[in-house]
Amino acid sequence: MRSFFLSILSVALLAQNPDQALVNQKIDAWHQAASQADEKAYFDLIHPSGIFMGTDAHERWTKEEFLAYTRPFFSKGKGWSFKSVRRSVSFSKDGQTAWFDEDLDTPNLGPARGTGVMVLTNSEWKIIHYNLTVTIPNPLMPMIKNHIELFFKKTS
What we know:
Helix content is about 40%, strand content about 35%. By secondary structure, it is an alpha+beta fold.
């Protein structure tokens, strides 16, 4: 009887989020395009009003700015590799907006986290905001904080 109710609950939850698999596929395709330096596929998945927040405090790019930044790398076949090892997706009540967060395995950054917002536009899911962060274990934060403060003192 318990498994019957769990099955009913699972079906009900899937019915609430019919685009769950599609949103996951789009994010995975976006990461795959970056790893292959496929500029067209990568930027086609970003909404025209999209914003990309990088790990550096100065990295807040519009789609056009991010395209200009990445073009020299992509044109040489150099991308980056982000592999999602955990992802959670939530949807607005009207099903037109999805929020996600993911833990990433990255060769260059180590463990990282991405958070984003996707919107359904003309029947297509597009990333309108993505924020890439490097996770810092709390016990290491005082040391990292000191390094960051010293860096900004030297550069100002």
